[in-house]
Design brief:
The chain has 790 residues and is of the alpha+beta class. It has 25 helices and 29 strands. β25 and β26 form a beta hairpin. The longest helix has 22 residues.
Amino acid sequence: THPVGMAKTKTKPPLQLTSTCAPKGPKMRAEGGLPFSCTVQPLADGSVEVKGTRSAEEWPRCGRCLAYACRYCAFDRIGWHCAMCGQYSYYSDEQRKHYGRASSRATLPELLHTDVRCVYDHHPPTQSSGNVVAAVEQEAVEEDEKGEMASPAMVALVDLAGSSEKTPEKLDVVKSALDAALEAAAPGTRFGLAAFARDVRLVDARGSPHVVRRVALQRSGKHATNTDLSDVLPVEEFLVSADKNRTTLAAAVELLEADESHPDEIHPSEPEVAQGDENAETNKGNDRDFGGALQSMLEYLSDREKDGVAKPAVRLMCFLFGPVKTGRGRVGNYYRDSREEGSNGLEEEIDRSLIEATGFYRARAIQAAARGIVVDMYILSDQFVDLASMRYLSTQTGGAIHLYPDASTSSLPQDMYKRLTSLQGLLVNMRVRTSPDFRVSRCYGNLYEDEQFENLQHIVVCNKYDTFVLDFEHTSSSGFDKDVQWPPILQLALQYYAVRPSVVTETDGKQKVVHFLRRYLRIVTVPWKVAGNIKQLYSAIDPDVLICVLLHKVVAALRRDGVAEARLLLQDWLIILVSQYNKWFELATFGDIDDSKPLDIEFKECTVLQPVPKLVYALLRCPLLSLDTVSSHPDMRMYLQCVYTTLPPALLHRAVYPQLASFSSPGMKGHDGLPLSRTTLAITGSPIFLLDAYTDVIIYYSSTSEEAPFPPPRESLLRKEADALKRDRSISPVVHILMGGKDPTDAFDQHLIEDEGTGLVKNGDVSNLGYSSFMDFICKEVRVYMSSKE
């Protein structure tokens, strides 16, 4: 019997399929031109918690494939048939109490819902061997079983180097961000404040006033400092209670000042030369030894270990104000972009921003991950800082990267508060099980394959927005077996830790909030219909999930083959998809193209595919793939790789193709989803527009809006919608309120990508084409492609 009554939720599920119908076999998959994939958002909202006395250990599992029992399995009094492989398994005595009777099964959340989570009562040792996550996880398991509390810890490492006129402004923004961090700190959090320039400065905040202890950095040697930082200030004294020492910490933050000294005071004997750069210049006035400071802090924080194994998830928040041109990990003038004199903006110039100039930061990332240290990078600079090398600090430790070219408009304080107050999953183990007819073939994102067990991935730290992509393949040329009782099924099993608050009563009767490390199990089970033909496959597509999968594949090509090849790969994919669509909807025939008969390049016969060409066009025009870097930050391409590959499908859609809505007044909304062109602004006749570009939310008043109140009233519908857009995303977008004809409107104009450009296509580059011309180009290429194929 199969239980009924599955609850519906408004949130997007953690597993989203490119098409709700799977291709019947490898042949249909190839002919359809669509990826056979899904996105995974491990900590997405919407799971139903199993409450009561039952724990994860009591969940029935198949004796053959080890899948968890779900609503799609068949149950009787003494056992059950697995929906994944068909194996019959018997209940244990304890399981029979809950699953043996139909009346009892009808009340079980795991059989009523497809997305369920529960808590482990006991934590078995991890089965992973040969990697650091296993050791860290085992320690966390043992501590939690003993009932020990988990004390969250945060450390700020602030850049005080340089004497730029912008440095005080950047420092003010960081001070506001650290105030936000102290405000966001949960009860029981330990906090440490450090700074660096040519030395490392540890703030001793145990008493008032605070004391700053300085240790010089050295250029060479095994260690970054001559003196062990623990000898200067033991780490347990450096990490103080954010609750009890809030006033002292706030005073220490306020007194942070930039250092105007020069590097030759410390390192007179060796010139500051960029690694791998023959034309490097000396770096007079730059004493930003971030590499040395980072290495010394990682060694220092490792001293919090107990019995040789690190406690998980100390967060190291690094604030960087410019390029590192001295000390360890220096990069210098490795990149020259198209804004500089003598640069022609060719791909070989631009691609240098994607090349890892030094392996120093990757090595430090491995060191941090091994010690359970999460590194967040907050970069306030409009100069090249070599994110291609530094990104590993965050991507391999589960941290975040934020880039702010202009400190005056940065949302750093808000981003930090969001980051520190959101739910974090620690030491996530992820396994995706499938029916026997298909399997996982490739994974994309910041996850790591287990060295011993097949199809087991590890994620160091994960928040509710982090998204990954899985590709599938059929296990045989015949595809899915028609005679199988159950449809193809995909089951996601997640094991993760989360620090959860709890109120305890002390011996004197007083109550206080403490944090415990708890281990959770989340099971998501999704059935997959099988498409009878390619029309069904196309009609079941999800364009947001499709573009998310394509983005991950394009980024992989970008890193492997460069910008030009990645662009061609995406364009060719669209040309093939349009060609196959015209074939299967009997609008054109391969090898016999009638030039007098128009092709359907807008997917008029399949409405769900209609957004795809515009999303592909927008992806080609965005800074991630654009060949024009005149208006971009030198590290923007690498930064967008890091950001876009973590976004869930709906938010990625906004980032790639912003949403434009019109308003006749601040209190009256017009239309949603408008094309991004000036023609649209004129046709609608609306005086006000709201544009959501993920990192920017823009309220634009046209020159015809003189009678509308400016700026819009706080209680108006327009402002409420703009404020709502700021909430449900991992970063805080910058809100611009602009009046056309009076304010500079570049921030708004740059998103009107569908306007016609020069109309020139050179070497397949469509960057200068408006959307209409781009579709004409695709139409011509489709005709050429279909004519050349039989």
